[in-house]
Write a structure and sequence with these properties.
Layout (H helix, E strand, L loop, with lengths): L2 H8 L1 H10 L11 H16 L4 E2 L7 H16 L3 H15 L5 E2 H11 L4 H11 L14
Parallel strand pairs: 1-2
Helix pairs in contact: 1-2, 2-3, 4-5, 6-7
């Protein structure tokens, strides 16, 4: 599968995320089409978290959130994009298990994911944190 067909089928953010996730930035890594699908599933999970948004605080995931913020910051500084993305995947998976997510915390998560998937995070941010309403969910992936 070439990059143009991946972008056409899954979007540029999926391709970017997968390339940064597949291995250490300074080492060559074998390509795996299933990994592209995994990157797409991560972005879909990120989008689905919006269904859990609330204005109420939720302390159940705060320790994990703050550990992830610190770790992702350090990983980006050390050009360890693959481990930063892995930590974000862990966070999003754990947040999938909670009943509610504070909107401010979700916005923070979008900021963490933004360097790896700027298009989708900007779209979500625009839709959720602006006056735009009733947009097709499919717009996230264009």
């Amino acid at each position: 599968m070439n990059s143009d067909s991946i972008i056409e089928q899954y979007g540029a953010d999926t391709l970017r995320l997968y390339i940064l996730f597949i291995g250490d930035y300074e080492q060559s890594t074998p390509w795996n089409d299933n990994g592209v699908k995994g990157a797409r599933r991560f972005l879909e999970k990120l989008v689905r978290l919006e269904e859990k948004l609330t204005d109420k605080e939720n302390d159940s995931y705060q320790v994990l959130l703050h550990r992830t913020i610190k770790a992702v910051d350090e990983d980006i500084e050390n050009v360890k994009f693959n481990t930063a993305i892995a930590k974000l995947m862990t966070l999003v998976n754990e947040l999938g298990k909670v009943d509610s997510i504070n909107k401010t915390d979700y916005e923070t998560i979008l900021k963490l994911v933004n360097p790896f998937a700027p298009h989708i995070t900007e779209e979500i941010n625009e839709i959720l944190f602006s006056d735009i309403i009733n947009l097709d969910r499919g717009a996230y992936y264009n």
